Amino acid sequence: MGNPARCRAACSEKTMSTTLNWRGYTWVRAAAAWGLLLPPLMCSSCATRCGADPGTTGSAIPAASNPSQDGSATVDASAERASDGCPDGMARVEGGKLRARRKVPWVIKTMCVDRTEVTVQSYAACVVQGVCQKPDSRESGGGGACNWGVLGRELHPVNCIDKNSAETYCQQRGARLPNFNEWRWVADGGDTANSYPWGNAPPSDHACWSGVAKRSGTCPVGAFPKGDSAQGIHDLSGNVDEWTTTEFFVTPGDFLLLGGSWSDQDPNALKTIAAEHDTPDGRYETYGFRCIKVMSPPAPRPSESSEGCPENMLVVEGGKLRARGNVPVDIRTMCVDRFEVTVESYADCVKKGACQEPKTGGACNWGVSGRAWHPINCVGLDSAQAYCADKNARLPAADEWEWVAGGRNAATLYPWGNYPPSLEVWWSGRVERSSTGEVGFFVDGDSPQGISDLSGNVSEWTSTPSSEGSGSFVVRGGSWESKLPDQLRNGTTDHQARESRHHAIGFRCVKDL
Question: Where in this protein does the record put region Disordered (predicted)?
Answer without folding.
Answer: 59-85
